[in-house]
Amino acid sequence: MDSSTHFLYLTLFISSFTQVLPLNVVMKTSLMYPLTCSDHTHTCDSYLYHISKGQKLEQVASLYSVNTSNITPIQHNSNLDYLVSVRCACKKDNNNNAYYLYDSVYKRKPEESVGYISNEYYSGQVWYVSGEDEEQLIMHLVCGCLENESRKVVTYTIQAQDTLVGISGLLSAKENEVEKLNTVLTKDPNYMDVGWVLFVPQETNKIRASKKWRMKTWKIIIFIVLPLVIMVTFLVLFLHRKRRGRKIKNDESKVIRKKINIGKTTLENHFFNVDMEEAASNIESEKPVIISLEEIEQATNNFDEARKIGEGGYGSVYFGIIREREAAIKKMRSNKSKEFFAELKVLCRIHHNNVVQLLGYASGDNHLYLVYEYVRNGTLSDHLQDPLLKGHQPLSWTARANIALDAARGIEYIHDHTKARYVHRDIKTSNILLDLGLKAKVADFGLTKFVERANEDDLIATRVVGTPGYLAPESISEMQTTSKTDVFAFGVVLAELITGQHALARDKQEPNKLKTLVSVIRSIFQHQDSAAALEAQIDNNMKGSYPIEEVFKMAETAFQCISEDPSNRPEMRNVVTILGQIVMASIEWEASLGGSSQVFSGLYDGR
């Protein structure tokens, strides 16, 4: 870092703005020394360490103008903070100095000062602020690049009780490398002040290298020194494990029944005469993982509101890290035992790429807990309705077609490819989750029912279940539930993918009335010019970039799925076939555009 970097700006620190045009505010720089640009590296991927002050994942994504998929939770003492992946670039500040910076837009409230915004929302990492008006501010955040592209720099703000050793361990860095990159602030490594901003170079290959060394060492031992001892040890372990297997098998049901107690009161006293003997035996055969309540509480920091990522009639969902895996933990009230056992039984038996994975379950403190894999990119509904406000980029057409195919495969699997046929009964866009590669996974099996394959039409529900806007007519009028009720709901999902509209919304012409998306799709195919009527309803977020023939085919499929008569609706296996053809044609269409940045979905990373 050259000497010109080390001088301090005169502190220009304001608590409110008195002028509208233009705005240029420099932050106090005794806390940070930006990295000057290298001649060889102009842009790179880097991380900004966000000190959480109760913001949810979507709020953090909005602050930094990124998708939620760019954010990784990180545990720091008892707090859950975030690493935000950003594209760092060499830029000149208002004094014409070239530094590594990342820009994000912030909508300022009248009572907020620049200093408050920097400390409250950006962990004190704002180098300077600019903007054409006093509301929309451009926050220029310090970041870092190294010539060695295999390593990434983390911009980290020192917190209370931090030490150089602790920071290095937290971010997988070497102390001497941190000192080299922060020569001014680490002159005395034993003294660091809260609020100082450090650049921490992560050692990305550290773990891998150590593993290779251990492997090499063990090979020498195994093949040269102790071959006979190892063979004898394995033989003894094998015989011992085989003998213990019988005992474990006999004791499993006792363990499950013991763990599933709530304090001194068993679940069967709470849950409306659920047959716990039968439930335990059914669950036992599929061997779900039992997780202790202590692990759940530790993972969620005692159900900290900042870790809440969802809420509904069943209870709340929290983010946590359990046994080194990111997890979504559903906390259900004790009167939701039927939904609890429904999900537990179904997800223990279902293992499919397009169905959310159950990691385990727990009980205690008058609550039930289901632990799922954490699907990082949120729900499909978040990506369709006002996606930019929720930190997501609008979905391209090809992305939508692939998501439709993924979800259809998940539903087809529970209908046709399991030992028992299941009906989900609550298919909707908020129950379809997306991972980092936009692969869709069907979730929330709390209302799922088992039906006989031979006479599934005989299943009569005792109450109407599901979500308004997705309910098939026979579910309401006749209380009948079949696989065709899922097909109906999936038709509504297809309509949402095409239009970006809600399944049920207020009628613009008659605000006192509700309008269903089902009625919109039906009106399209009652129109003399169905293609023109369809184009008028296509989601504007796609900005006209779509193959109209394939959109029309998907709309036709949606129209067939929402038929009044269940017998006229296709089976999910037929829907999968049609969507597969639409996806292939859409890929060809996209390729013909030459990968235009406005159209190309970038969907196939990791697929």
TrEMBL record:
Keyword vocabulary terms for this entry: ATP-binding, Cell membrane, Disulfide bond, Kinase, Membrane, Nucleotide-binding, Signal, Transferase, Transmembrane, Transmembrane helix
SUPFAM superfamilies named in the record: Protein kinase-like (PK-like)
Subcellular location as annotated: Cell membrane
Residue span, Protein kinase domain: 303-584
GO biological process, one term: innate immune response
UniProt entry tagged with the keyword Acetylation: no
Domain of life: Eukaryota
Name this protein carries in UniProt: Protein kinase domain-containing protein
Organism: Tagetes erecta
